[in-house]
Structure formats: C-alpha cells, structure tokens
C-alpha cells in the first residue's frame, strides 16, 4: 500500500479545525448559487405542495390549515370518483397517445417523400400545434354540437349515430369528444419529431435494401423502424406524461361530465382545488398522480436503457 | 456473370439533361471504370444500370434482357456504395446475409456463402460485430462481402474508396483488383480518381458533361487521348497544354517559340492547335543545342520518387517531371528538349486529337 503525504500524513493532520472545515465547505460554497436556485425554484414549491397533502387547507374555511396526517389519503382510498378518474385517465391517455402517434407517423411518412407544394403542406399540417388548447377545445365542442356543428349530422348520415345528437352529452361516448380533439391537436408533435428522425436516415440504406431485394414493407420494418425506435420511445414517454396531466380540453369540452364519465385525475384535481376550493385534498390526489407518473417514467427509462445497450 | 449493353441512353432531371446518347457495351467478366469529374453523369449512369434512377430514353440490357422496367432486386446486380450503406443495427454476418434471407435461401446455404465471403475478405473475426464497431476499411470490406455473397451477374461500385484515407485506398484498390481476378464477375466502377481508373480498369470510359469522351484500355487513354479533356484528365501531374498556330511547317506558340510538328501529322497553314506535352516527356538536357529550349526555373516540388519542376516557357507555366534529384535549382536556367514522337496535337476548335 502506498501512502501519499497530502492524503494521510503518517504523523497526523497538522491543519487546524478551522482549516479543515474551510476545506470541506469549499466545493459547496462554489456550487451554492446553483444549489440555492434549484432549492428555491424547484424544491420549495414541491415540498410546499406535498405538505398541503397532509394538511387541511380549504379556502372557504379560515380556521383550516392544521396537520391532518394521512386523512386525505384514507379518504382517497374510499373515493369512488377518484377510482373512476384513474380508469378514465388510463383510457384517455393511452387512446390519445396511440392515435396521435399512429396518425403522426403516417403524416411524417407522407411528408417525407418529395411532392409539389410540400413546404406548404408541412406548414398546414403543423398548424394545430399553434392553436391554443382552450380554443381548440371550444372549437371541437361546437363542432360536436348538433345545433351549430356538422359532425353529428355527418355521423348520422354515415349511420354511426341513430340520430344527430351531441356525443359529448352521452355518457357512453362522451370521452371520445376530448380524445378526438386531443388527437387533432397532438398529431403535429409526433409528425414533427418523426419527420426529423426520418430525415436523418441515410437514403443509401433504402437503395441498398432495394437492391438486396427488400420490398416497401420490409424496408420499413428493417430500416425505418429500427432508426425511429429511440425517437418513438422518448416521444411516446413524454407525450404520455404530458397527456395524463393535460386537463384543458376536458375542462373546456365536458368539465368532467356527464356523470363523471370524462373525469380524469388531472381534471379531478382541478375540480377539487378550484371548484370545491379544497387545496389539501387536491394536493393529495396530485401527489398520487405524481408517484404514478414517476413510476411510469422510470419504467420507460429502464426500458430505453436496455434497448440502447442491446444495440 | 453477364454482359451489359447500354444503347443510346439519355437522362434528364426535370428539364436538365445529364446524359446524352450514351452507347456502351460491357463484355462478360470485364472490369469497366467510368471516370470523370463530378457532375459528368457517371454515377447517374451507374444508378440507371442498378435501377435506382429512371431511364429517360434508350435501353439497358443485361445478358440480352431489357431491364428498363425491371425492379432493382430482379436485375441480379449488387452495388457497393460510397457510404457503404451498411445496416447499422445488424451484425456483419446479418448485413452480409440479408439479401439471401430475403430471397429465402436455405439456412445452410447462407452460412456457407457468408463463410466463404468472410474468408475471402478476412472478415471472420468480425462477423458478430456491428458496423459502428468497425474501422473504415473494415466497413468497406463488409460492403464488398455483402455484394459477393449473392454471386450476382454484375457488381456496381459507386466511388467505393472515396471515404478512405490515401493509404487504405491504395490497399483496398489492390484488393478489389485481386478479388475481380478471383471472381471474374462483370464490374462497373465509378470514380473521379484517374489513378483508380488506370490501375483497376480493363477498359476506361472517360466521361465529361454527360457525354462519353473516350473508351479504351488505360494505356490507350494515356498514350493517345482522343481529345483535350481526356488528355488533361488522365495522368498526374497533368499534361501541359501550349496554344499555337501552324506557321511554315512548324507550330509557332503565342510567345513566338517554335515546336517541330511531329511525324505523321498534317496541319493546314495557320491552323489553331493545342500541343499537349506530358511532364514526364520533357527532358532536361546538359547544354543548349538544336531543338532545345532554355528557361528559368520557377518552382521545384520534390515528391520523393521524382521531382516536379516548373519553368516559364512557351508562354506559360510548364511542368517537368524528372526522376533525377537536384537537376534544377530555383532561379537557375535549365535546358530542356521535347520528345517529338510523344507530343500530342489537338485541333483547338474541335478539341479533338490530330493524327
């Protein structure tokens, strides 16, 4: 074993206690500005929000604010509306993400091949992304309204509806309204990311595969998909978390109704906090949602890592 | 293996013509190199043979069968790309066997073919690696391996060595030549590098501006270039060109010097010509004599094996390639003589060779 004098002098450390403390603190002092910023901007609000979940905070009750322990969570465990919202969240999130992804990918594949007026078509396809979500929610709500909108009449003409009614007011079909609006609004995100990834694939590979004897489907399977896989994984992960938290369209179009059939966890939090003004209970629900999404993110990150190391 | 016949092929991109009425026939087992500067249409012609570009006009036949409308995969050709175009997510073995798998070849046959190709190219220890983990030269070998496993009728090479460093390029060049000798398959090779063209080709097709300038074996192109373009393109250092007119039986250059007309060439009095002189055919002589010229040395470039000497002569910067070291010093006068039989005379108007 080798001893380095600076690290461990055999005759003991001769520095004074003050010097030792200074040496120990030095790196922390250098990083202090950033650490203070992170704590102040990110951790303090997070901790406050989490603390609300264990306190009784109701805006209408000036005597509230006391620590209540796990009361909110016990309440939550027996809250049927919350369980319904969880199921709706799964339904809302996965059907939105899958449809957005599929249509986004198809759009990207179409836009990736050269044709006249491609630049204009690209600009038009990416337009929904620029529309504020509240506005697009209102738009779609009107389009589903048989009095002012055409969609119920079209669906009736196609024989899908037995009468031109508003699908948003039927508990069986209401969820499809916000999902359709969300898909329309979210396709450009996938189209942009997939198009960028598609354009990074060298054209030579497709030519080599064509000569090797691969047809269009085989070329898609053996070149396009492997090249897009990392982008697909990360964009689907991002979108899933995003959409699970995304209540704007639901609040605007159905407000969680009819009969809580479109209530997702995010809109339920909104309802608890801003309609019933029960911030404590809303924070408890938010904490549960946070834990679920964190678990999901970890799962995807691990999945992506194993995928990357395999390649 | 097969012959390839190209009949009055034309190609336009939109309204821009890139190939004009190309005729070429490639014999079974022949190694033909298409050479020319970038934009001359050589790669386009190769890609038309491969089926990666539409044929605007004319006809291409492989073994007598018209393939204009045949899909690339059914033409039974293999292509090696400049970028290698290896599938990055597949191992070397998978890259090489991909085309055979798609053709539903039996597993044992695939293993046999891949093994044989890997053996020929020294790829055995790399079979389980991915392209990412290979050097440029190894990737090049895999690209060739992918081509040879299938035993195609013809090999098409699109500037396959351009992405390699000079030393590796030399090595791979020799390897391609050896491989061609061993396999004997019909090969069409595109390059802008005239050394590659000279060393590899059975026959060179020199192209410029979408037109075939000359077809012939490498030494033909070097010894008897058909026009000014070929003369300037083939050979390094490049040929010297001196403009002049025929005046009373000799060529008078623009600065008033006279060059004797080589034997067997008839020139009309006053005809505008360009004389081509290869740097290696300019001799440095001991003293001034009949037919010799004296010039001051401008610049000396030693290349190790030989030396390139620039002199101011015949109204221009004339390059001399000599194997003698220390034959010239900058600023010193130099006596030189031209080899009469090795001069090339071109009509300046048509740019074609005279005689």
TrEMBL record, chain A:
InterPro entries, A to Z: MetI-like, MetI-like_sf
Keyword Transmembrane helix part of the UniProt annotation: yes
Topology within the bilayer: Multi-pass membrane protein
GO cellular component, one term: plasma membrane
Record's keyword annotation contains Lyase: no
GO terms classed as biological process: transmembrane transport
Keywords: Cell membrane, Membrane, Transmembrane, Transmembrane helix, Transport
Domain ABC transmembrane type-1: 86-300
Gene3D superfamilies xrefs: MetI-like
Name the UniProt record assigns to this protein: ABC transporter permease
UniProtKB/TrEMBL annotation, chain B:
InterPro entries documented for this protein: AAA+_ATPase, ABC_transporter-like_ATP-bd, ABC_transporter-like_CS, ABC_transpr_MalK-like, ABC_transpr_MalK/UgpC-like, Mo/tungstate-bd_C_term_dom, NA-bd_OB-fold, OB_MalK-like
GO molecular function, one term: ATP binding
Keyword line: ATP-binding, Nucleotide-binding, Transport
Origin: domain of life: Bacteria
Membrane topology type: Peripheral membrane protein
Gene Ontology cellular component terms for the protein in this record: ATP-binding cassette (ABC) transporter complex, substrate-binding subunit-containing
Domain (ABC transporter): residue spans on this chain: 4-234
Single GO biological process annotation from the record: carbohydrate transport
Subcellular compartments: Cell inner membrane
Gene3D superfamilies: 2.40.50.100, Nucleic acid-binding proteins, P-loop containing nucleotide triphosphate hydrolases
Protein family: Belongs to the ABC transporter superfamily.
NCBIfam families (UniProt xref): PRK11650.1
Name of the featured protein: Glycerol-3-phosphate ABC transporter ATP-binding protein
Source species: Pleomorphomonas carboxyditropha
